[in-house]
């Protein structure tokens, strides 16, 4: 089978990194088209040996991109087109039909109750989504919660399939030696208690809640924010304003896809001396997300609207206790599947109390709970292959 994945962009984000991981695990010949922003994840895909094409779309109303995409699909002689994220779903489904490909699958990664990918869920957004949805064969929801939102939106239930996001559990397995070296690289004081926040630095992730909470926590509590985005300057100003700037570390974007499969260099890796005081972004260069989660003592996820909660699942795989406001990935499982994940109300005061309580309980075993193993990438890839097979067989029988 030959498949084309169409995605809105390939900067560092949950959907983008999930696509890279899926392509690595699918027993399918896959190419990728990004409508815009061929960023760090595009570089990672290319390093993996995947053909990536940048369509160069010019804004939301660039209708000239539609025939370009259709020609690309037609030339590639693809058996199936798989679209990811709102704009790619709208353009990709229509282009696949124009190219004569009827086996079209779409994944809905980020449908919230009031927004999708940061855009408000207006009647126009909903109408365009539903019109394009009818051009595909099935829509994949990344959680039962998203599946229910799609049904409420008007997507017919029989067209919805649930395939949870997956992670490479082994990559996140806790490593005590890696923890110590990472904390030295970051310039963390001995004995610092590190609260982590992972994700795009956007308003919807609400990381300012953690900055405000830090101001009410003891001086040996630090905040490690892993990600980049338009709110970084806002968060830096908030840290300055609340007097905690010397205890907040910003790493910038940290691609979480698997490292390219290149031979390891001979001899020990060069060591970077730890700086005095708070780390700057360059100090985190070369540190991937598993290394950074090892350095944390707790992960906090203050976002009020999540479609899945990938950062929470990855933290659980690293054996971290987790505080979250919204995480369908945890809430959709039995309570004992993630015993160290706790839901909080969402305000800064709630996180202050919850962090104090978690710290008082002392460190846990740093082993992955059942929830992390439930979301293995191999399991997700197997389920997606069933959907691919049904889509292509359905086309051949009609």
Structure description:
By secondary structure, the protein is of the alpha/beta class. It is built from 15 helices and 15 strands. The chain has helices at residues 14-25, 40-47, 65-76, 86-98, 123-133, 144-153, 176-186, 208-214, 232-241, 289-295, 310-317, 328-331, 348-360, 370-374, 377-396, and strands at 2-7, 29-34, 52-54, 80-84, 104-108, 115-116, 119-120, 138-141, 160-162, 193-198, 221-226, 248-250, 298-301, 322-324, 341-343. The strands form 3 sheets. Strands 3-2-1-4-5-8-9 form a 7-stranded parallel beta sheet, sandwiched between helices. Strands 12-11-10-13-14-15 form a 6-stranded parallel beta sheet, with helices on both faces. Strands 6-7 form a two-stranded antiparallel sheet. Helix 3 packs across helix 4 and helix 4 runs parallel beside helix 5 (123-133). The chain is elongated. The model is unreliable at 259-279 (pLDDT under 50).
**Could you give a short account of the major beta sheet?**
7 strands, parallel
The tally of strands reads 15
Uncertain runs with pLDDT below 50, 5 residues or more? 259-279
Main β-sheet, spatial strand arrangement: 3-2-1-4-5-8-9
Class inferred from helices and paired strands: alpha/beta
Q: What is the CA-CA span between the terminal residues?
A: 19 Å
What's the overall average pLDDT, rounded? Answer: 89
Gyration radius from CA atoms, angstroms: 21 Å
* Multimerization status: single chain
Per DSSP, what share of the residues sits in E-state strands of 2 or more residues? Answer: 15-25%
Describe the global form.
elongated
The topology string of helices and strands comes to EHEHEHEHEEEHEHEHEHEHEHEHEHEHHH
Q: Helical region count?
A: 15
Helix content: 25-40%
